[in-house]
Amino acid sequence: MALRALLVALVALALAGAALAAGSKSTLRITYWPHGRSQSATIWTLGCGPAAGTHPARIRTCAQLKAHPADLRPATRACTIMPTRTSPQAAIQGTWAGRPVNRSYRIGCPGWSDLRLVLTGRS
Q1: Model confidence band, residue 77 (pLDDT cutoffs 50, 70, 90)
Q2: What is the four-CA torsion angle of 84, 100, 28, 17, rounded to 10 degrees?
Q3: How far is Cα 34 from Cα 24, in angstroms, rounded to an integer?
Q4: Burial 25-39 (b: 16+ CB within 10 A, else e)
Q5: Residues 53-70 pLDDT 10s
Q6: How far apart are the first and last CA of the chain?
Q7: pLDDT digits (tens, 9 = 90+) for 91-117
Q8: 92: burial class by Cβ within 10 Å (0-12, 13-18, 19+)?
Q9: Hey, CA dihedral for 108, 64, 57, 99, is it positive or negative?
Q10: From CA 118, how far away is CA 123, in angstroms rounded?
């Protein structure tokens, strides 16, 4: 009986830990250069869990990030599109679901389409 109680307690602790990890706060800094890095940038903050910060579409942006978490991980393939001096670019830094994020994006490269609202503030 004591063994069963111990097992139940261990399972409950494991589930609680998983729930905390899944619901952990995420804090990101998004930098968007609409006309390339040689021009001025717009910088937003974004918190998810709950949605907060200066990003103009916080709730929809948090939903988009939740739907595409792989786009916050380091890129798995190189972008073959060469940027021009005025190509839109963006960067995300911070923490998402307890993991560090430090990734750059360019229009036409992996992650840009999935995270367009996150990166540009516009759908």
Answers
A1: confident
A2: 150
A3: 31
A4: ebbbebbbbbeeeee
A5: 999 999 999 999 999 999
A6: 57
A7: 999 999 999 999 999 998 999 999 999
A8: buried
A9: negative
A10: 9
Contact at 8 Å (CB) between 105 and 115? yes
Predicted TM-score (pTM) above 0.70: yes
Residue with tokens 């430090």: 102
Closest CA to 31 of 18, 15, 20, 42: 42
CA contacts within 13 A on the Cβ side of 59: 0
Domain spanning 25-120: CATH 3.30.470.20: no
Q: Residue 49 in 3-state DSSP?
A: coil
Is residue 18 scored above 50 in pLDDT? no
User: Cβ contacts of residue 12 below 8 Å, gap of 6+?
Assistant: none
Distance of CA 14 to CAs 7, 18, 21, 66, 69, Å?
11, 6, 11, 22, 23
